[in-house]
Amino acid sequence: MFPDIIKFIPLSHRFLLKTENLSLPLCFDVTGDVRLKLLHHPNRELSVNGELDTVTNGGFRRIVIHFKTDLYVEVDTNVITVREGQTLTRHTGQALITAGSLIVIRRNKEIDVAAGDTRMVIYIHEKDGVEFLWPVLRQQPLDNNVTGIITLKPAVYEEVQQTPSTKLKIKDQEIDVTRVNAVDYSIVSPPTLDCWLTSAESVLQRRLDDFIVTQL
């Protein structure tokens, strides 16, 4: 008798990058429960990072907001923790939280965040009985030096080949893609969309490592 062989399948999360027209969005996978740079706005001293959960194609376990030098806000699906200087407060349930010029509004299944010229909503979704977070940028900052996964501009590409395999042209690079589907967590009731799957580097136009942080 041969022992059963269990094949290890790495944990992955699928991200969508939509287009401004009716073309299929692009999508890419991030493997592992890594920490990602969601938004970095140096001129406003605003930084938002997120830690992916352990649910395949789920979302974020927690999201941390750093604002100015002494304001720290940690968001999970149940509690919002605010540390302002030496003062620590915890908020559960629906709440309006103001800390300096940062405003956080907790509703039933979403959390609104406003800091200067930046507006973000964090949705609370559920998959397989597990709740998770998904951040969406609602108002793009005016400065052009803002970076992060949720600040990416809409995808622009040209379909240059359909057979025997599909190729897209992004900027001056031709890439192979596969038609798959992904859940669009950027809205309250997430639909499943078809998308073109390719590498994270092709979608981001830079290394994925540039979006990975070691600490929240």
UniProtKB/TrEMBL annotation:
It comes from the Eukaryota. This is Inter-alpha-trypsin inhibitor heavy chain C-terminal domain-containing protein.
